[in-house]
Amino acid sequence: MSALKKRKVAHEAPENSSDADSSTPEASPGNADTANEQRQEEDSKPAPKTFKELGIIDPLCEACETMGYKAPTPIQAESIPLALQDRDLIGLAETGSGKTAAFALPILQALLDKPQAFFGLILAPTRELAYQISQSFENLGSTIAVRCAVIVGGMDMVPQSIALGKKPHIIVATPGRLLDHLENTKGFSLRSLKYLVMDEADRLLDLDFGPILDKILKVLPRERRTYLFSATMSSKVESLQRASLSNPLRVQVSSNKYQTVSTLLQSFLLIPQKHKDIYLVYLLNEYAGQSAIIFTRTVHETQRLAFLLRALGYGAIPLHGQLSQSARLGALGKFRSRSRDILVATDVAARGLDIPSVDVVLNFDLPTDSKTYVHRVGRTARAGKSGVAISFVTQYDAELWLRVEGALGKKLDTYDVDKEEVMVLAERVGEAQRYAITEMKKFDEKKGTRGVKKFGKGKRSRDEMDQDEG
């Protein structure tokens, strides 16, 4: 057993012994000092500086260099050697830690050794994340000509059936639409599947995909490797792990599930509710020329702020769950390419999306839970870069904010502003607010003429589940 494998099993093994390597003995009180000395000695060893040192072959190392991956992240350094040992794996790490490459590189290396169609299946909770994972596989596998198919809701099933008929190596899918194809697409089967990945597993289960995952797991071969990656290890994820993994090893690079990266500068603004729009415009002026994501709580507020900011001359674009799939991908594309430098979004953009150039995250509305806060601010300061996150705290948000600080385990600084400077913008912002109200009326009327989806008492359709909330 390698030193790395020993260290992770000894240091990170969960209390439930079924998660750990059964061949590794538990440390008893009598040999605790020896175990501690061994652990200190192993921990003092330098971390791998290259992907080649982790066991990745040259063609994939070249792809990593092309993508700008200079050195493995902690989750990659810990999980890749274990995955290359042909073991099931549970990977726990905060958002923005490089989890996609941690499972993509071992799968691509195994694919190169024994090429076959339908080699790997990656399940993701949202459509945007599925497209992003597919892009990562194609980029990392560019030197070995890997073929990927994205199977998500909100798109025509016929082109997807054609893509499956071309026998791709890797399928990236949302669970609802994948099950539709397994049940309805003639000739499509995953009986020869070698690798299954459940990415953002806690999110998959938060969105009630549990029963669908059970049906999918029943038609997959038992002889396969399974990787489960998640930001947190909830009781639901524990039960999914027991149902789908065989004697897995657990890799955990963060002991605090609400940890944020050290390069992120976080602060908050304590302001009256009625002046939020004015303070928002002031901050956008302060960070002019930098890319920003503004998070809101509702679709209505997302759309209203987009109208308001456009009236003031900002290149703002909305992203929320009521947009069509093509409009959502278009919004992300424009923001990534910097043809628009402000993205106003609901929590549909809070998790999993890798937009490398985000400089500032503004929490216009605080999220209702601390986990979502961590995922929101994780959109910036990614891959070792620095970033700024500023949260708006009104007289109605004090309890929510105290909860966030409690989860982070620290008090955050107040963002200093000159109130007189801010209020100079009041008149201009007032005009833009009136314009936004008019535009929202038109927007709501236009939406009404299309017919609103009626939700009965039955379960949501699989397509609606794939949308993600917001």
TrEMBL record:
Extent of Basic residues compositional bias: 451-460
Motif (Q motif): 49-77
A biological process term (GO) from this entry: ribosome biogenesis
Basic and acidic residues bias locations: 36-51
An example Gene Ontology CC term for this record: nucleus
Domain of life: Eukaryota
Catalyzed chemical reaction(s): ATP + H2O = ADP + phosphate + H(+)
Swiss-Prot/TrEMBL keywords: ATP-binding, Helicase, Hydrolase, Nucleotide-binding, Nucleus, Ribosome biogenesis, RNA-binding
Pfam families to which the protein is assigned, alphabetical: DEAD, Helicase_C
Name of the protein this chain belongs to: ATP-dependent rRNA helicase RRP3
Organismal lineage: Eukaryota, Fungi, Dikarya, Ascomycota, Pezizomycotina
